[in-house]
């Protein structure tokens, strides 16, 4: 039995369209999936930190930062780009703080901490300040998801400012945490 040329052509076009939809990395569903993965990694980092696993938490939040960087590149609107860039900076600050905690624990956990560990805290504070500045200077958006993300990030920044200040004091760092 012979295939009819129109049926064959239609099936080929349908197959090409289907394959193209799988390869389109900028589809809304793909972005939603990547945002969900970023949120999952952030939650995983929080859970690991709560379980006193700063190394695992640092790895998870580092992956969340990479996902935020990817989403920054894919975003079309400046407000969306800024919110993902701010998330990346926040996550990198968290990663540095968690790595500092893991290293401090590994070196015996007795203050004062070595200068390199205190330097991690200083770098974390700089990234945190950059994230906050970016969010504060971003124009307000009418998109609810961006506003929700912005508010979430500002809350996390406040929490991490307190965490980093506490680590700075606990480690007895001589370096000013905001340098």
- Kindly, what is the distance between the CA atoms of the first and last residues, rounded to a whole number of angstroms? 79 Å
Give unreliable regions as ranges. Answer: 7-28
* DSSP E strands, number: 0
Structural class: mainly alpha
Gyration radius over CA:
22 Å
Order of helices and strands: HHHHHH
Oligomeric description of these chains: single chain
- Average pLDDT works out at 85
Q: Percentage of helical residues?
A: over 70%
Largest sheet: none
Task: Describe, in plain words, how this protein is organized in 3D.
With 179 residues, the chain is mostly helical. The chain contains 6 helices and no strands. Helix 3 packs antiparallel against helix 4 and helix 5 runs antiparallel to helix 6. It is globular and about 50 Å long.
Question: Key terms for this structure?
Answer:
6 helices, mainly alpha, single chain, 179 residues
Short description:
The protein is an all-alpha fold and 179 residues long. 79% of the residues lie in helices and 0% in strands.
Produce the secondary structure layout.
Layout: H1 5-23, H2 28-50, H3 54-74, H4 78-106, H5 115-137, H6 144-170
